[in-house]
Amino acid sequence: MADATTETHGEDDTSRRDFIFIAAGGMAAVGAAATAWPFIDQMNPAADTRALASTEVDLTAVELGQQIRILWQGKPVFVRHRTAAEIAAAQRDDFANLKDPASDASRLVQSNGAEGKPEWIILQAGCTHLGCVPTFVEGSSYGGWFCPCHGSDYDTSGRIRRGPAPLNLIVAPYVFTNETSIRIG
């Protein structure tokens, strides 16, 4: 009879031991997750960065032939209201010998894939050579932006025409929210 009692008692010990191992393992997993969470969470963008993830721009303040420079994610962005002459020059240069070929129409596409408006060009304002901020020069060789640091010349569509910059100015991700405003980002 002693053997039967020991055998029954042994089965209880085994199931109790299994429960203790599972409970201890579960608590260890919860403790590891609680310890790791602050380290994982700190990799998320800061609140001020998330706040700059998109920027609304009212276009009514930008006169024809003018541009504004705004900050989006800490980087400058050009929002230019192009004249008919600037649009015509950009479209005419679609067939020029370009270092980084792109049509004017392809540089106006909104981030949602819809066609943009030819009178508005929205570009990230960093020269693709070393990141300097070019200036718009009326009456320059190509009628667009010029980076004085190393002499890169861009046309009215932001395409590189001359100088060491390897690529066109980058089109900022934007979408028209209504007729008079855009959201960048």
List the helices and strands and how they pair.
Elements: H1 2-41, H2 47-51, E1 55-58, E2 67-72, E3 75-81, H3 84-92, E4 120-124, E5 135-136, E6 143-147, E7 152-155, E8 160-162, E9 174-178, E10 181-184
Antiparallel strand pairs: 1-10, 2-3, 3-4, 5-6, 6-7, 7-8, 9-10
Give structural notes:
The chain starts with a helix and ends with a strand. The protein is elongated. The strands form 3 sheets. It has a 4-stranded antiparallel beta sheet. It has a 3-stranded antiparallel beta sheet with strand order 1-10-9, with no helix packed on it. It folds into 2 domains: 1-44; 49-184, Rieske [2Fe-2S] iron-sulphur domain (Rieske Iron-sulfur Protein, 3-layer Sandwich). Helix content is 29%, strand content 24%. A hairpin with a 4-residue loop joins strand 6 (143-147) and strand 7. It contains 3 helices and 10 strands.
Oligomer: single chain
What is the correct CATH architecture of the largest domain? 3-layer Sandwich
SS-derived structural category: alpha+beta
Domain module tally: 2
How confident is the prediction overall: mean pLDDT?
Answer: 86
- List unreliable stretches of 5+ residues: none
- What radius of gyration results from the CA coordinates? 30 Å
Which percent bin holds the helix content? 25-40%
End-to-end Cα distance: 79 Å
Strand order of the largest sheet: 5-6-7-8
Strand content: 15-25%
Shape descriptor: elongated
